[in-house]
Amino acid sequence: MLQLGQIDRADDKPPYRQIAGMLRKAITAGDLTAGGRLPSESALIDHFGVARMTVRQAVQELRSEGLVISEHGRGVFVRPAPPIRRLASDRFARRHRARGKAAFTVEAEKSGYTPQVDNITVGRQKPDSAVAERLRIPSDQEIVVRSRRYLANGRPVETAVSYIPAAFAEGTQIEQVDTGPGGIYARLEDNGHVLARFTEEVGARMPTPEERRQLEVGPGVPVLTVVRTAYDSNDVAVEVCDTVKVASAYLLEYDFSAH
Q: Which Pfam families would you find in this protein's record (predicted)?
């Protein structure tokens, strides 16, 4: 059974912060394991002799740090770990597409998770100025927009929106919900655009309310943003992908030479 101390009434630190500190210590020490359930509100109230609001404030502090997640009707759980390791030098290797696997599938499976994609939408529109600039196309040229959400073991970890010049996607499964084995990049290569290189811009910020809803994260949990541009062997930009990742769910690894 989880062993927790008691509140020090002489401590200047508010009781809810003392409780949060004890629970945090239990998580970092491994006494509360990833995916494990925290003691119930009632159990914490009885143990510490505090009001329900005090316990809720303590749990909210842990939630805002991204340490725990709440599941309606089930309780509060330690956020699953380890994170998905995203190896930039390997994730777009052609051998994965040849095996019919897209990048996220490879990463999630290597990290021990079952991958899933949902909320897929596909449509056409005109690009905004930022996307047009990255794709090096006029702003009145039509593009295909693919939006989706990625889950690991049923938990949302990332949203992604791809922008592809319509001329490159036309007549391919890129314009369908199911892109087929290997995903977008496999279809682009099938259509004659052999991929040669990628650029990525990585940032960090707090999520918008809509992103919080889609990623099912609480207040105070940051996200990583990765904007990627893919180029073919003729140095033509064939896709821009704008991703938003739950920061605690990922480790971004980059391998590059010192030359």
A: GntR (PF00392), UTRA (PF07702)
